[in-house]
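Chain entry —
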Amino acid sequence: MNIVSICACTVGIAHTYIAAEKLEKAAEKKGHSIKIETQGTIGVENELSPEDIKQADIVLLAVDVKVSAKERFEGKKVIEIPTDVAIKSPNKLIEKIEQISQQ
């Protein structure tokens, strides 16, 4: 499964990057491809390209704040959760995404 994600927390420092790291490890452990854009204090990093989004089976927004350019995911299955879910339960989250993507 191809997953694209945005991680963004209220302060834009720790939780943004911790969530991204946990999601990356959990997805890879299950054999999934994941590309994660972070929107933190230093701006947008690893920005998702239109091609990344086109190839994605699902979009995961692990966010605590409003993210920029959300309209680019129109027509995609989008799951939005707080960053603490991605940090505390990344493996369960990936399992849930697997279930949702098959619906």
About this structure: Helices lie at 14-29, 50-55, 83-88, 90-101. The first strand starts at residue 2 and ends at 8. The chain has a mean pLDDT of 95.
